[in-house]
Structures are given as C-alpha cells and as structure tokens.
Write a structure and sequence with these properties.
Layout: H1 5-12, E1 19-23, H2 29-37, E2 42-47, H3 50-63, E3 68-72, E4 86-89, E5 102-104, H4 110-133
Parallel strand pairs: 1-2, 1-4, 2-3
Antiparallel strand pairs: 4-5
C-alpha cells in the first residue's frame, strides 16, 4: 500500500523517536507507514467513528505491524497527558481536503500549536492542491 502524496508529505514531518497520535486515522495508512519506517516509538490511531477504526484494524492486521493502538474517541479526549508527543490531524475527508493539516510536538500545547502549524501549513497545502486541480 502506497501513501498518497499528502500523507507521504505529512509523514516526513514526524521526527524520529516520536510517540504519535493520529487523530481521525480513517484507514490507518499513516500509522502503518510510520511504524514501518522503524524509528517511531508508538502510534495511537484515533477516530470518532467505529467503522474507520474497523478499517484501520483490518489494514494493520493485513500488514502485520505492531506498535499501533486504536482508540474510539473525539480528538485528544482519549489520550493521556504524557502519552504522546506528536499529534497529527490530517483529515482528507472523502475526496476533498477537510480540516487544516497540523503536526505539533507538545500534547500539552496541542491546540495552540496545531493552530499555529495549520496556519502556515494550510497555505502550503492550499497552493499544492489548487495547482494540482488546474
């Protein structure tokens, strides 16, 4: 399974040794690829709906990777304070770009850091996707 260009780009922003939370994991492709990379400590893949988590679980089992925990929760609500140090919100939303992309390295400051990161990254991604659609 190859990552989309969008998810591949996001995966390059995750630092080695990270303990990652992928919010809105959907199919679980990003957590799988991060673990396969070999330098990520762990990934918690969350989603607010049961079906996407079932899809992610199926894909994780099919690839045989370990180190990924699945959780049914809304955003960071099911994540303990010191459980992760890197948060990814990269929702694509069924053919269109959904919420802003963000990657931040402090669970304690996730909301403000995510906003700051999204502000700058959204301009880059918007330019890329607008160019791609032309």
């Amino acid at each position: 399974m190859a990552l989309s260009l969008r998810l591949a780009l996001i995966s390059t922003l995750v630092p080695p040794g990270a303990r990652v939370c992928d919010i809105g994991t959907d199919h679980g492709y990003l957590p799988i690829e991060l673990i396969k990379r070999g330098d990520i400590k762990s990934v918690i893949a969350t989603d607010i709906r049961k079906m996407p988590l079932a899809n992610a679980e199926k894909n994780i089992k099919a690839t045989g990777v370990g180190g990924i925990t699945l959780r049914l929760c809304d955003g960071l609500e099911g994540i303990a304070q010191n459980e992760v140090d890197t948060v990814i919100t990269a929702g694509g939303g069924g053919g269109g770009v959904g919420p802003p992309f963000a990657l931040c390295h402090s669970h304690r400051r996730a909301r403000s850091a995510a906003y700051y990161a999204a502000h700058h990254l959204a301009r880059i991604f918007k330019a890329f996707f607008m160019r791609k659609r032309l």
